[in-house]
Amino acid sequence: MELSLLLAEQILVIFLMMLVGYIIVKIGLFQAKDSKVLSNIVVYVCFPCVIITSFQIELTEETAKGLLLAVAAAAAAHLFMIAVVYLLEKPLRLNGIEKVSIIYTNSGYLVIPLVTAVLGEEWVFYTTAFILVQNLLIWTHGVSVLRGQGVRDIRKLLTSPNIIALAIAVGLFVAQIRLPSVAMDCMKSMGNMVTPASMLVVGMVIGDIDLKWVFRQKRPYLISFIRLVLIPFLAAAGLAVVRNMGLHADSEYILMIVLIATAAPVAAIITQLTQIYNEDVRYASVINVMSVVFCVITMPLSVLIYEMLGTGNF
Questions:
Q1: Nearest 5°: CA angle at 296, between 293 and 302?
Q2: Are 175 and 62 in contact (CB under 8 A)?
Q3: Which of 79-88, 150-159, 193-202 has the weakest average pLDDT?
Q4: Long-range CB contacts (< 8 A, 24+ apart) of 41-44?
Q5: pLDDT tens-digit readout, 162-188
Q6: How many Cα atoms are found within 13 Å in the side-chain-facing hemisphere of 301?
Q7: How far apart are CA 78 and CA 86, in angstroms?
Q8: What would the DSSP string read from start to end of the chain?
């Protein structure tokens, strides 16, 4: 219960950051279109820095096994979410933005600060497993789904800054190469911008949108329900079963991190990608805003279900 309450508190902090972005547009300091530059900085500069610095830790048998468990759980979670979308696509007539909004979560921008606050900085390493899997998918499968077409230039997608950053990070981790302290300090500072900058982008995008209109839209409620309730609650039950298999000494918290990432609201990068590829950024932002608002309740509940099923106190 304590972890669930702490999680809710940290989500509120993230929400307030988004509110700042909304306010600075409303009072005329910036325009909503100004957020596109910030989006590009986050996607192509800040986020790669987070990935690389997260892997700058000692390679031991325990960390290696823990990372493999986290990667396997993250891959299974993504396959599960893709399967859910596949089953619901035709009955619910899901469009590209809705599909990627259900599958891809705010696993980096939101989860890293949450894990740091709730479990401690040493556990951030395991969040990179989910980030790794999601980045490999979002820049291939996700972009193709969003644009409603197959991946025509796989080379271009696989050479994106985020994929390159993942390759560099894993290579440095396996080879146990430590970056100079000056370079690490620089990248950590850049990485620290990810969460506030991403939330500012979302807030700025909706700055010229009537919020009453946002919450009058019916369709985003359905997408938010699937993203925040249906998928996380089922995932909590599944991960609780795996937790009790005793696969790793730290499986309780490793799998909890995967669950937090799975239960997170819609990925902020979806809003940024709709800007980059000239899709319906307003609709993507509406879904994002709703999911961020409602996750204050649903994410702690998902973790609570996981804890109760894992301990047999349900």
A1: 130
A2: no
A3: 150-159
A4: 41/193, 41/197, 42/109, 42/193, 42/194, 42/197, 42/198, 42/201, 42/268, 42/272, 43/161, 43/162, 43/269, 43/272, 43/276, 44/161, 44/162
A5: 778 878 988 998 888 999 999 999 998
A6: 12
A7: 12
A8: -HHHHHHHHHHHHHHHHHHHHHHHHHTTSS-GGGHHHHHHHIIIIIHHHHHHHHT-S---HHHHHHHHHHHHHHHHHHHHHHHHHHHHHHHHT--HHHHHHHH-B-TTTTHHHHHHHHT-GGGHHHHHHHHHHHHHHIIIIIHHHHHTS--S-HHHHHTSHHHHHHHHHHHHHHHTPPPPHHHHHHHHHHHTTHHHHHHHHHHHHGGGS-HHHHHH-SHHHHHHHIIIIIHHHHHHHHHHHHHTT--STTHHHHHHHHHHHHHS-B-HHHHHHHHHTT--HHHHHHHHHHHHHHHHHHHHHHHHHHHHHHHT--
Could you tell me which residues come within 8 angstroms of residue 24 by beta carbon, excluding any fewer than 6 positions away? Answer: 30, 200, 203, 204, 207
Please, are residues 124 and 112 in contact by the beta-carbon 8 Å criterion? yes
Task: Please count the residues of the chain.
Answer: 314
Spatial distance between the Cα atoms of 78 and 84, rounded to a whole number of angstroms:
10
Picking from 56, 61, 100, 63, the residue whose alpha carbon sits closest to that of residue 78 is: 100
Six token digits for residue 215: 């919450």
Handedness of CA 142, 257, 66, 77 (dihedral sign): negative
Q: What is the pLDDT of residues 114-154, one digit of tens each?
A: 787 778 777 877 888 898 888 788 877 888 888 776 555 56
Per the structure block, which two tokens stand in for 4?
């669930």
> Computed over its alpha carbons, how large is the radius of gyration of the chain?
19
CA distance 114 to 107: 10
